[in-house]
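Reopening: structure tokens for the pyridoxal-5'-phosphate complex, inputs below.
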Amino acid sequence: MKQVEWQKQAWDQQDLQAKVLKLKPSATLWINERSAELIAEGKTIYRLGLGQSPFPVPKEVTAALVEHAHEKDYLPVCGLPVLREAICNRLKRYEGIERNAQNVMIGPGSKELIYMVQMALKARLLLPSPSWVSYAPQASLAERNVTWIEASWQDGLRLKAEDLEKACLAHSEERLMLVLNTPNNPSGVAYNEAELRSFAEIFRRYSVLVISDEIYSETHFQGSHISIARYYPEGTLISNGISKWAGAGGWRLGWLSAPNEFAWLIEAMGRIASETFTSVSAPIQYAAISATHDTPSLNQYLSACQQILGELSRQATERLNEVLVNVCKASGGFYLFISLEAHRTKLAARKIEQGSVLAQTLLNEIGVACLEGEHFGRPAQELSLRLALVDFDGKQALEALHTSSPIHEQKLTEIIHVHCSKVITAIDLLCAWVRTHTS
Ligand SMILES: Cc1ncc(COP(=O)(O)O)c(C=O)c1O
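Re-run output (same inputs, fresh job):
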């Protein structure tokens, strides 16, 4: 063969598609890795960055996984029929909503399923601000336009029906979808019946497709989560999974349930799945069935997690309020969303005028890792932060609660002091830092 001198230039990252090139690493995963690096350097870091459940997977669910470890066959693309049926039964039990098992799709985490919806449909995405970190980057990957609807601190960061209506009206020529996440990450806001009914009216008028992200449903502190699908069943996709309330984030299993009106969407998503991830791991799907059951031990587990999360949130809020930090009132989930705007002038003297500078300063000076509000769609200059109150051993906290029944309020307070001490210390350090730099 004739020798050729010419050689094509080597690959480099400029060969990436522009939309991939501009994608940053997910903020929550980044803060987790950065915290791990600092810990490896010998620093004490309070990990209030990544929102991972502190609790173990319920015993009966891990037992089911062991029992099904031998399952090795590929399962149907949209998921194991008995699991899909069990999810419908659970929805009926909790929300009184009738769904057809054929319209339930199982995916490797609800994150992937939310992305697949965005990929499959031609629509503008409406996002209340604040919203979870990944919806907007997913929209950008799927080449969808995003419109943020900003909620104000005066309204407790709750989406207002009139603002929702304005956004729908401004884009009424286009197909619209919206992610409604309740209880909310990062704010902890859980919408009540009156709010959901008023949203439903607007959604119906503008034919908005709602992705109701209910991944924190069973972390509602009072156990009283309500789905928008009760009031707008025909246009609501319900997204949920075992990552948060069953502590199994790393197992990677989530689901999406659609009304009959959107059977064609589930069918289309099945086609995408068949050419991409094929199906979710078989043993995990079998194990997940037991997480949907109505058993005394599972209910006791959920209720104990809710009590611990609720009390921790209450204590942290109380401490932060004492130093005039504005805390959005949380009704569920793992997070507190806070604002230091009341201290803006004093902090400006230290050149802290943006959320990102505030978060960096706290990591460097007191080892508290958290995320600035900008990642959640808040203005870059807003001095807001999300604190994930999860740096504790949930197994020990649950055991302490279990051995102390009946539970007295004082006992619960004590459990938080003993078993969630690292989170409380981080909050105290933050409060002391605020006092020092704002007095
Ligand atoms: C609001 C919200 N939705 C969805 C997810 C994704 O959950 P998973 O993909 O583990 O089901 C998360 C995870 O952090 C979340 O906080």
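The chain is about 45% helix and 10% strand. The pocket of pyridoxal-5'-phosphate is lined by residues 51, 109-111, 132, 181, 185, 213, 215, 241, 243, 249, 254 (CB under 6 Å). Marking as resolved unless the reporter disagrees.
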